TrEMBL record:
Chain sites annotated for binding Mg(2+): 201, 236
GO terms for cellular component: cytoplasm
Cofactor(s) recorded in Swiss-Prot or TrEMBL: Mg(2+)
Reported function: GTPase that associates with the 50S ribosomal subunit and may have a role during protein synthesis or ribosome biogenesis.
Pfam families cross-referenced by the UniProt entry: GTP-bdg_N, HflX_C, MMR_HSR1
Designated name of the protein: GTPase HflX
Species this chain originates from: Halomarina rubra
Amino acid sequence: MNSGHSLQGGTAVVAARRTDDEPDTTEIRRLTAAAGYEVVAERTQRRARDAGYGLGQGKAEAVAETAADHDVDAVVYDGALSPGQYANWAALLPPDVELLDRYRLVLGIFAEGAADRAAQLQVELATLEYRLPRLRQVTEESLLNQATEKGSVVLDVEDRIDRLHNELQAVSDRAERRRTERREQGFDPVAIAGYTNAGKSTLLHRLADDLSVESLGTGHADLDDTAAVEDRLFETLETTTRRATVGGRRVLLTDTVGLVDALPHDLVASFSATLDAVADADVGLLVVDASDPVEAVREKLRVSLGELDDPRGELLVVLNKRDLLDDGALDECREAVADLDRVDDVLAVSAVEGTGVDALCDRVHEALPGETLRANLPNGGDTEAFLAWAHDHGTVVGREYDGETVHFTFEARPALVERARARVDDLGGTTETPDGDG
């Protein structure tokens, strides 16, 4: 059994079960293809979940026979296998056949797509933490007893997990220092989070100064569940940051790693660097596909929110693809998520069409931490240099020249407003608080 985090590729048999309906293998076939496997056969079953194999034992044996007949490289099970079920399957299959359940398959695709160090560390950690109990289950007790002398794959994995946690902490510390530096430079961090296919990347293109939705093409091809998995589902594995201007404020938008539907709850926590970026942002945008069933929308948000212990800023739920819903369905979706803990507001948009995006920007601007300073400075070169600094670090409005005096209003993060106040004093100017007191 391969204990690494990459997938071997080759040929595969797909196995799927549903309780009430005939299994639809379209999605698992797409995932399998995206992982580099050619599906040469499938075996499906309509029955209650079996405690030993997920499928009934007879069907599981038929899958193993099919795998041997086709000399495949892997068996892909469309669902989650417990450690005990994993051990049962491992004993049933030919020894050189890799066993992949749906979650292991998805994590393998993540591993192939991870380019930056943070993404690589997070995917490897998630994979190993998912595989560790399965390794324990299939490892003989005698080997564990001898581990202190001879070592074991289990102890090797445990040691690697410890090292990954330490490396990820170092990566998170560096990222936090970068966010602090950017705040000092006048940028407001805004994180876009959510599940794949919710439209996070399209929203980033809609909001960023240097991107456009048109560059993605038209329609919902990048958002729809029927889009090609290998092209769309995992294209934002690394975090992507772009500059944007919201209400005159300079914002850094970060499109974070997309979570995948039905990943085990404890695995979501493995993507700690991504979750840290959301928790530390001045505003977090949790994007969800509003055209999903209402209960699915609520569950995805519940999982996302459950991993955010104490977010710094406001969390805004963005119900995307509102153009696919009528008013009644949209209201039902909004009501279903409005009472979730830590949700500060719910807004509906169409990232593709732009509907509701202006209202979202207004709400983001409202949520950004900021103060306003009214200032009067003597007209001259030093003042012009200061105003250039102010434009770079915040928003300058109402700029007027009255003889030898320049009047303007400066809006920015509180710490930057205090720096501006001190510089105005050094230049011999005067300041006023927003309510007009001198």
